[in-house]
Design a protein that fits this description.
The protein has helices at residues 13-19, 22-31, 38-41, 71-75, 125-138, 183-192; strands spanning 2-8, 44-48, 58-64, 84-87, 97-104, 107-109, 119-121, 141-160, 163-180, 205-209. By secondary structure, the protein is an alpha+beta fold.
Length: 210
């Protein structure tokens, strides 16, 4: 696995445009893996926006299953410096405790009613916390501490069948501490990400040993 730190130039028009439309940002990131199957890349990323008024470089963390090459983005002026890339192989043991950070898009697929068969955003605090608790059980970990903040809606646009579509994702930032309970399930969840909307910057689980 590889973890990259990209520092984007906020003065670059393309950077501002793609940060405002994560669908295009996702396409730009995948374009750096030309000829590699998307499922093999295993791309997960999170944008750390910081203070938008200070015009500082914008940090993005990117996790991939194959070695990335960000040189073209640097040469295009999208990055203020060459990306830092670290190779690592995570090993988890039952009982391990980590601090974590996760930007997620908590949703549920409705079985009936007006939205039957559709994925809808969870908006209340109780729903958003319950969503992560369920994901934790399915992903082999236990939540020990948790705080979360609703970051609002993230809008993206794409062209489909000649018409522009607006895509809406509810962004929720979760931070806290977790304990690994099933290291095999946890490793798979760590590699694949948590929840939906991964193409739009959701699902990357960042860990620091407690």
């Amino acid at each position: 696995m590889y973890l990259s730190k990209l520092l984007f130039d906020p003065l670059k028009r393309q950077v501002r445009k793609e940060l405002a439309n994560r669908y295009e940002l996702h396409r730009t990131l995948y374009a750096q893996f030309d000829g590699i199957n998307k499922s093999d890349v295993g791309l997960l990323y999170r944008v750390e926006m910081g203070n938008p008024n200070q015009m500082e470089p914008i940090l993005m963390l990117v996790q991939t299953q194959v070695e990335p090459d960000w040189q073209a983005m640097f040469e295009q002026g999208l990055l203020v410096e060459n990306a830092a890339v670290k190779q690592y192989q995570p090993v988890f043991t039952d009982g391990d405790i980590y601090h974590f950070k996760l930007l997620a898009n908590p949703t549920v697929r409705r079985k009936d009613g007006d939205y039957a068969g559709k994925r809808v955003a969870l908006l209340t605090e109780e729903e958003q916390v319950g969503w992560l608790q369920r994901k934790a059980r399915d992903s082999g970990f236990e939540l020990l501490q948790l705080s979360h903040s609703d970051q609002g809606k993230l809008l993206s646009r794409k062209i489909a069948d000649g018409a522009e579509m607006t895509l809406t994702h509810q962004a929720v930032l979760y931070v806290g501490a977790l304990a690994v309970r099933d290291n095999t399930a946890f490793l798979q969840a760590y590699k694949k990400g948590i929840g939906s909307g991964k193409a739009f910057g959701f699902g990357l689980l960042s860990l620091a040993r407690a």
